[in-house]
Amino acid sequence: MDRLEEIVAQNLTELRKAQKWTQAELAEKLNYSDKSVSKWERGDALPDLKVLTQLSELFGVTLDYFITENAGASKSQFDMPKRERGFRIGVMLLSVSAVWLIALSVFVFTAASPAIQRGYWLALIWAIPASALAVAILSIHWNFRILSIIFESVLSWTLLTAVFLQLLVGYSWNLWMLFLVGIPMQAAIILWAQIRSRRI
Asked: So where are the chain's domains?
């Protein structure tokens, strides 16, 4: 077991130094204390499997990199397969494309309808928070912490904008105060991200 701790410590230290991060910077990215990172790098403790998974995502390597002796010498064989990265990006783009296909279809059919005089362009506005929702869900699923925070924030603010415009166009209600709701929503997103990362 001690030997395993030494191997993990060496590989983690090499990865961190290659990125030119301090222990404190790595700890901040993981939402752990720098004391924890220091213990891992000294071989005094092992990060649990969830933390190792988070580290593998962060450094773009497979999990077995951390438990393989002198893994840094042949790091390329442990790189996260480009195919996997390409697949994940492709799924995100495909989901966003599906949202916009639906939105454009609604836009075209409502614009062509003589019964609808105005507001048909709102279908395109609603596509923005729907796209952000799709990317946020996939980011959470694949543990892309920063990306999920970004798209959860985009989702909240564009959703408020879409509701505001819908009420303005449909009912002539200028409820600009609605955007004040975004402040606690943004705080909740950041706090929830902190809580989620502690459980990972």
From this structure: 2-78, 82-199
Average pLDDT, rounded, for the chain: 86
User: 3-class DSSP state for residue 2?
Assistant: helix
2-78: CATH topology: 434 Repressor (Amino-terminal Domain) (1.10.260)
Q: Is 62 left (phi over 0), alpha (psi -120 to 50) or beta?
A: beta
Contact at 8 Å (CB) between 61 and 79?
yes
Q: Tell me which residue of 154, 113, 11, 134 sits closest to 70, measured CA to CA.
A: 11
Q: Give 20's contacts (C-beta < 8 A, 6+ positions apart).
A: none
The full length of the chain comes to 200
Instruction: Using a cut of 0.90, tell me whether the model's pTM lies above it.
Output: no
* Distance in angstroms (rounded) separating the CA atoms of residues 159 and 151: 12
Task: Measure the CA–CA gap between 119 and 52, rounded to whole angstroms.
Answer: 50
79 DSSP β-pair partners? 61
